[in-house]
Specification:
Elements (H helix, E strand, L loop, with lengths): L12 H31 L3 H35 L8 H4 L8 H43 L5 E4 L5 E4 L5 H5 L1
Antiparallel strand pairs: 1-2
Helix pairs in contact: 1-2, 1-4
């Protein structure tokens, strides 16, 4: 683990940075795998599995964010060591790294950015699938029992389904 508060030595700074980037790349790859599994679980209508995979996705997203913040802190320290502004991007710092390492860093930066884009796309797709699944379920419930299933607005102004009359299921509880 890299201590972000200490001064980065110039002899091994690119090696430490490379390790951080590789870890971040690995976390994003794992997140993509979980999001794909989440999508399949949604499509296969497995609610028990969905709850479990949602927790895994959340944990993986948090781990990815932690690594991203570590990398950003490390890059800020590098920038200061190179006499650049603290908010410099990693791409802006590449000319300060050894020439032989620059193509490797460009490649890994490109791959991380691509994975981040894929994560955003997959999250958006999964959110739309879940919203559609809720709509379909709501429609089925309204067809099955139209008198007990009406849409109203909550105190927060959101559309919700609230039972206007007790159902047989509610009477038994």
């Amino acid at each position: 683990m890299v201590n972000l508060t200490q001064t980065v030595s110039t002899s091994n700074n690119w090696e430490d940075l490379l390790e951080l980037l590789r870890n971040e790349l690995q976390e994003y790859g794992g997140l993509i795998g979980l999001l794909n599994a989440q999508q399949q679980t949604i499509l296969n209508r497995k609610p028990d599995s969905l709850l479990e995979i949602n927790q895994s996705v959340q944990a993986q997203m948090e781990a990815s964010q932690i690594l991203q913040k570590r990398r950003q802190g490390y890059v800020s320290n590098l920038a200061l060591n190179f006499g650049r502004p603290k908010q410099s991007s990693l791409s802006e710092l590449l000319p300060h790294l050894p020439d032989v390492t620059q193509p490797m860093f460009e490649s890994i930066i490109e791959e991380i950015n691509s994975l981040i884009s894929n994560v955003r796309t997959k999250v958006s797709q999964n959110q739309r699938l879940l919203a559609r699944l809720l709509e379909v379920t709501d429609h089925i419930l309204s067809v099955a029992s139209p008198t007990s299933h009406s849409k109203t607005y909550s105190k927060q102004g959101k559309v919700g389904n609230y039972s206007s009359t007790p159902t047989k299921l509610m009477d038994r509880a």
